[in-house]
Amino acid sequence: MVRRLAEKDKHLLAKWLSTPEVLEFYEGRDNSFDVEKVERVFYSSDDDEVKCIIEYEGKSIGYIQYYELDEETKKEYGYESGRIFGTDQFIGEVDYWNRGIGTLLITSMTEFLFDRMNADKVVMDPQVWNERAIKCYEKCGFNKVKLLPKHELHEGELRDCWLIECR
Predict the structure, then answer these.
(1) Residue 74 structural domain
(2) pLDDT tens sequence across 104-123
(3) Pairing state of beta strands 143-154 and 157-166?
(4) How many structural domains comprise the chain?
(5) In which band, very low, low, confident or very high, does the pLDDT at 48 lie, cut at 50, 70 and 90?
(6) Which residues, at least 6 apart from 152, have a Cβ–Cβ distance to it below 8 Å?
(7) Shortest CA distance to 39 belongs to which of 71, 17, 57?
(8) Which residues contact 34 (CB under 8 A, 6 or more apart)?
(9) What is the pTM of this model?
């Protein structure tokens, strides 16, 4: 189940985003979060992301956000028109990794964005070295579209990412 982020979730986000295993793949191990940083980054009202908590069998286990791409990002990615949505996500409870939950999450979120939000495409930009995530996304119908060189700062280094999309 996916539900909207609530005030009570800030301590969970701080816990997950101070776990080295999670930070290795999301934000970077040199970019740990405390509650104050979580409040600044996740609870500011000046962004367009819809921020959510992932629950599995009644337990909060991760985070996902979705958003419609702005015109600048569409141009950067090579899109001229259409309703294009992006997502970012992580499973913060490491014990829930490698259990098929990511595949279930991405499949259901993609269906939601197409069916309820009238998306024409859904895109993500995983770092090229994150093969486990890319394999999950490909299993869910995403295809590599374009290499984005030096696209994301991660652990002090600009990393290449793949632009992947699902139609």
Answers:
(1) 2-166
(2) 999 999 999 999 999 999 99
(3) antiparallel
(4) 1
(5) confident
(6) 125, 127, 158, 159, 161
(7) 17
(8) 14, 18
(9) 0.94
